[in-house]
Design goal:
The structure holds two protein chains of two kinds. By secondary structure, chain A is mostly helical. Chain A is built from four helices and two strands, in the order βααααβ. Chain A is elongated. Chain B is an alpha/beta fold. Chain B has two domains: 119 residues, Response regulator (Rossmann fold); 97 residues, Thrombin, subunit H, CATH 2.40.10. Chain B contains seven helices and eleven strands. Chain B starts with a strand and ends with a helix. The chains are: A mainly alpha, B alpha/beta. At the A-B interface, helix 1 and helix 2 of A face helix 1 of B.
Chain lengths: 106, 237
């Protein structure tokens, strides 16, 4: 019996943006680490700011799934719901780790 | 072609805006914070400023309020870019006199359409091309000691005890950055702020904007400081 198949998160991106994407994804990984630290410290103000920032930046590149998770983090931080924050951060990490980017002409 | 200053604390938003605006034929200056944006406006005339509302320390509302209270800057058109749904902030932005709004996340087509429509009604001026070439002569060379605090696309903020004057042209020696900086990168001394300990805080604006050089310098300073020396200096400033 093999390991369970990992779900890939396929995102279709405008090929014109290709050169911006490695830096963009790297920054989102850094943001995730900042969010995890803020969650550990129960710093909901920082989490709200980071979630808000992710919500505002990701959709523009075509990563609406990340933008939606950013919105969920912002909302969970406003509610100061630690369990929900942990849950959303786990989903965000899973999404970032299993992100598959396909470039398309528009 | 218009010259547009984009102001946002999120580097990924700046990258996307710059990409879209340059593709549309505009000349773009960028600032990763409102204070730096004010420094840029002291150097360059622009046709439009696009500014995020929510930024740490000095936010977009404070930035626009500062501009609107400055007689030499208060005619600059302003567009707010924000995903904020907080009504009080949007109302305040309207009161401050924003010319139009752009929404985050950025939708490339509607973003450019709004800007194009603005410039149809408010044609941009002719600007002298920003000179990226080195000037023929130098007034000054800066030597040690100089402690670099931070590097942005526009220049270097540092602490030094060198005798400097605002407006002077300077060259930082490559030895200061252990090969990270090629010879001949020139800066203009934009501002000087004296400190209690006899040293001065200075901002050295790049005369050339070779982004590859800027990135190397940023990496160099980050690697060298590891955050520690910057924190140390931040506490003393």
């Amino acid at each position: 019996m093999g390991a369970p198949k990992t779900t890939e998160f396929v995102v279709y991106i405008d090929e014109k943006l290709a050169r911006l994407i490695p830096k963009f994804v790297g920054i989102q990984m850094e943001q995730l680490e900042l969010m995890k630290t803020a969650a550990k410290n129960k710093n909901y103000l920082e989490l709200k700011f980071l979630g808000h920032r992710m919500k505002g930046s990701c959709g523009g590149y075509g990563f609406s799934i990340l933008g939606d998770l950013g919105r969920e983090i912002e909302n969970a931080a406003v509610a100061q719901d630690g369990a929900l924050v942990t849950n959303v951060l786990a989903r965000l990490e899973n999404c970032l780790v299993n992100l598959k980017i396909e470039y398309r002409k528009t | 072609m218009a010259r547009i200053l984009i102001v946002d604390d999120d580097e990924t938003v700046l990258d996307l805006e710059q990409f879209l605006l340059v593709e549309a034929g505009h000349d773009v200056l960028q600032a990763n914070g409102a204070l730096l944006a004010l420094d840029i406006l002291a150097l360059y005339e622009v046709d439009l400023v696009i500014v995020d509302i929510l930024m740490p320390r000095f936010d977009g509302l404070q930035f626009v309020s500062t501009i609107k209270n400055n007689p030499t800057l208060n005619k600059i058109p302003i567009a707010f870019l924000s995903s904020t749904t907080e009504k009080d902030k949007v109302m305040k932005a309207a009161k401050l006199g924003a010319d139009f709004y752009l929404m985050k996340p950025i939708d490339g087509k509607s973003f450019l359409k709004k800007i194009s429509s603005f410039f149809q009604k408010n044609p941009p001026k002719e600007h002298p091309k920003i000179e990226y070439q080195h000037p023929p002569s130098l007034d000054l060379k800066i030597h040690h000691p100089i402690q670099v605090l931070s590097i942005s696309d526009l220049g270097v903020e540092a602490v030094t005890n060198e005798e400097l004057a605002e407006g002077q042209v300077a060259e930082l020696p490559s030895s200061l950055f252990h090969e990270a900086l090629p010879d001949g990168v020139l800066f203009k001394v934009l501002w000087i702020k004296p400190r209690d300990d006899g040293f001065k805080r200075v901002f050295l604006a790049f005369l050339g904007r070779d982004l590859e050089v800027v990135r190397k310098l940023q990496k160099y300073v980050q690697a060298r400081s590891g955050g520690a020396s910057l924190q140390k200096y931040s506490k003393t400033l």
